[in-house]
Known about the structure:
Layout: H1 13-28, H2 38-59, H3 63-73, H4 78-81, E1 94-96, H5 99-105, E2 112-113, E3 120-121, E4 132-135, E5 138-141, E6 157-161, E7 172-174, E8 176-177, H6 196-206
Parallel strand pairs: 1-6
Antiparallel strand pairs: 2-3, 2-8, 4-5, 6-7
Amino acid sequence: MSCVVCFNDKCTCLKIKGKKMGSLLKKNEMITVEDITDSERDSWIEEIASICESYGKFLALDPMLVFEALESKRTFWYPNYYHKANFPDLEGVFKARDINDLLKKIDISQGFRCPFCKAVSKSPYKCDSGIEVERGGGIIKCNWKSYGLFNTLGRGLRIMLTDNFLNNPFVDEIFYPVSLETNNARPNQFPGKIDAQRAKTIILNGLFRNRSPKTLK
Length: 217
């Protein structure tokens, strides 16, 4: 693994920074379960260094700045916090500078494709298409959530707002925007006209706020 500071495989920065990371983790960690062994701890430090290196390259930032930003938001045990569910690989992540740049790249007035019922939802986080689906042994109106256990079933869009990442160091996941579809797919049922301002407000309320975005009713 290359150095998290200079990206050189042969330098000693990783060892030095690794010790610093370990010191900061020890200082900040909030142990809620039995502590891990030293070897497991060292393995986690390397994993965290790899995350910071990857995100640093993606954002053109010093990996230690990334690490410090991630640590500033951590409120629970670091092996759980640095799980890949929270800091996934960045391949395929849709990058925008800020919310205004994002809204230039995505026509949110066209809605978002629910990965479960395949219809169009006004909300990018919780399906409100009105389509009836079979779930749990019964028939219900689809209410699939992009932030649920199975996220978007691999059919959504992961988004990073780069300018504000150090303040909100998360990768968001939403239903796939219809405006970005390339196969001209359209749902069997369209849930009426989508108000662009309402859709924008939903995104602003949900994007990067927390892991369970509060969407408008």
